[in-house]
Amino acid sequence: MAAKRPGGWAARLMGLDRRIIFALIFLATGLPLLFPVNLPITPSPRVRAAFDTVDRQPPGTYVLMSLDYEPDIKAELQPMAIAVLRHCFRKGLKPIVLTLYPAAPGLIERALVIAGTAEGKKRNEDYVFLGYKSGSQSVILGLGESIRQMFPNDFWGTPLDKIPMMKGKNSFADFPLVINLSGSSIADYYIRIAATRYQRPMVLGATAVMATDYYPYLSSKQILGLIGGMKGAAEYEKLMDITGDARRGMDAQSLIHVTIAILVLLGNLALFLTGGFRPGGSGGSREGTGR
Amino acid sequence: MRYGPLLVTFVVGTALVAMFFIPHHKVQEGQSVLLDWANVVYAFALILGSLSLWASHQRKFLSRAEGWPYSFVTLAALAFVTIAGVVQGVEEGTLVNRYYNMVNSPLASTMFALLAFFIASAAFRAFRARNAEATLLLGTAIIMMIGRVSVGEFLWSGFPPVTEWLLDVPNLAAKRAIALGIGLGAVSTALKIILGIDRSYLGRS
Amino acid sequence: MSEALNTSWFDPARINLLVGLALFVAFLVINIGRARSGREMYIRPMAGLKAIDEAIGRATEMGRRVLYLPGLGDMSEVGTLASIAILSRVARRAAEMGCDLDVPGYDPVASTIMDGAARQAYIEAGRGDAYRPGTVHYVSAQQFAYVAAVTGIMLRDRPAANIYMGSFYAESLFLAETGNQTGAIQIAGCDQVTQLPFFVCACDYTLLGEELFAAGAFLGREPVQLATIAAQDWAKALAAAMVVVSLLASVLGHPELGRLLQTR
């Protein structure tokens, strides 16, 4: 059967200029931030599990928090960090925070100030920030032996032995809960070392793209909760009954997704009208082709 | 035939594999030492890489090759960060730290943010129902895109459970299968390197 | 409470991994023996790898270069090692066809090693004098600085073919989409499962998962290399059989086999 002669607008739509698509995405991002709609958010079972794990800890419990992200993914992980820190502070838990990313300390310091100010908590009385240490896997292995060997001082140079909150806390064994918010394979090291080797209960936060990689660990109970991406952070904020950057950003994310879906459907409508659809066709000779 | 590097690879590779099974504290300390040595090697390689970067951009700048102003900016930035870092250090408040926070970090965030635009143009081009498999991909993509955000829940309460099922069952099954293959491929490649079957890293096929 | 110093010489919880490793090595030895005895080792055609020759030929005819991206891993990542093996083959083909190659490197150690591998490939192709210093060049060890540099190269130099082989992360779509804009033929292979969908959308050919690790053997066609792929397949078949058997056993009320397969 010969292909239909393409209609004018359908053919033009098939080859729509990228710049028009970019302009539509720009509007879809900007408009909801200027005119918020506050769409409903229902926490998923995975985020609820993470929330419940933290919520179950009795006041005074020490929590080791490794916040491993840099400015490029802070949009997803910074709101998550603030929400989890505020939860820890509200429950009277004692977070000991560290990072394995060189560009993260500035972000983490801001997160601690925001969360601490909101919940009335003080540095070195209610939380300790150890700062950055290079080495990833070797640092995590070292945390299992001696935190002081890895971090003799806190981020501001105070020796850990001079911080009353750190008395008697020197390895994974002293922390009933480990929380890792990570945008990289550092999460794999924590699962392998902290959760599996040292049997520490663990909650994980990851970017939306990486979160699905950790579903198997959730089903095998190697991690007890999983917060994925900005949506996960928004769900956590909803459970905390706070409105942070994640909840504010969900309107924009929603409109962007809808815009892309509409563009895709329009593109397919144009394909149908120009006779490009072949329902009986095979996958083609090219493997995994996107064209 | 370069037996020296092959022998070093074999001995160190086998030792590291053995260390995985030996929990003796002395052995684990040895593993930490090896990991530290890897960091030291990386630091020296960074110097080598920086010199190579300097050399290639200097060539372009001096010969006024196409794009030479960009090479000048690269050389100037490399020199500035190196000298300022050596003289002042990189702690909070230093020039390098401020440069990183005020220039490098926002630039990295901006680049990452551009992904939203690229995803849109890639999706528009790729999600076309040209055949049965592509139609299935298209349908799943639409359901996931709408169902994973608040608007999906707003339109139909069934969207979130459907997307969770898609992620938990078919997606996870496929990912596990691919991950199993990747894991075995990684073991195979590592064994080939350790046993000297693959010597491409030495510059030999 | 601090841990007492461990003085045992074997972790019994890892015996299943040791048995698995021993089996894998046994499969390797058996298949290398089969290969050396002259037995033909069949490997199924992979469209993406067959297309590499087509891509290099296209670049030669157009007088434009081939851009080879080895990924953002360092030498400790197996994806990078696989990428170096593929680069040797690609460089050899490029040398034979007289095509220009450009390899921007992310990791300084890997860049040095790739330079040696590419140079050696040119020598083996009898075109050692044609190897251009700077073919492999270190760019940056920062993810998006690397992306900015490479996309700049794509938009200015307009390579005819882009080959992505290695470990890629969030920048995968950025690179592939920019390459698509320039009209280059694109072939990708990545060991990060989360990035495969982006490459599938934006590239002409994508190697899925373990095909990246088989690529070096496929391109070189050396019997011993092909034997390692056969060993990999045997191990995969065994793993699949054990998954099915332990699932059936669990359903029938005997989860012991499943527990045997758990790792620590």
Task: Give a description of the structure.
The complex is a heterotrimer of chains A (291), B (205) and C (264). By secondary structure, chain A is of the alpha/beta class. Chain A has helices spanning 8-14, 18-34, 45-55, 74-90, 105-119, 137-145, 147-150, 186-197, 208-211, 215-219, 229-240, 245-273, and strands at residues 62-68, 94-99, 128-132, 177-182, 202-206, 225-228. Chain A is elongated, with a radius of gyration of 23 Å. Chain B has 205 residues and is an all-alpha fold. Chain B is 81% helix and 0% strand. Chain B has helices at 3-21, 25-62, 68-88, 95-113, 115-126, 132-147, 150-155, 159-194. Among the domains of chain B are: 3-65, no CATH class; 117-194, no CATH class. In chain B, helix 2 (25-62) packs across helix 3. The N and C termini of chain B lie close together (12 Å). The longest helix of chain B has 38 residues, at 25-62. The radius of gyration of chain B is 26 Å and the shape is extended. Chain C contains ten helices and six strands; from the N terminus they run H-H-E-H-E-H-E-H-E-H-E-H-E-H-H-H. In chain C, helix 3 (78-97) links the parallel strand 1 and strand 2. Chain C folds into two domains: 13-42 and 228-260, no CATH class; 47-219, Rossmann fold (3-Layer(aba) Sandwich). By secondary structure, chain C is an alpha/beta fold.
What keyword list fits this structure?
heterotrimer; A: 291 residues; alpha/beta; Rossmann fold; 2 domains; 12 helices; 6 strands; 49% helix; elongated; disordered C terminus; C: 264 residues; 57% helix; globular
What's a concise summary of this model?
Chain B is mainly alpha-helical.
Radius of gyration of chain A: 23 Å
Flag low-confidence runs of chain B.
none
Largest interface: B-C, 63 and 87 residues
Order of helices and strands of chain B: HHHHHHHH
User: What share of residues of chain B is helical?
Assistant: over 70%
Helical proportion of chain A? 40-55%
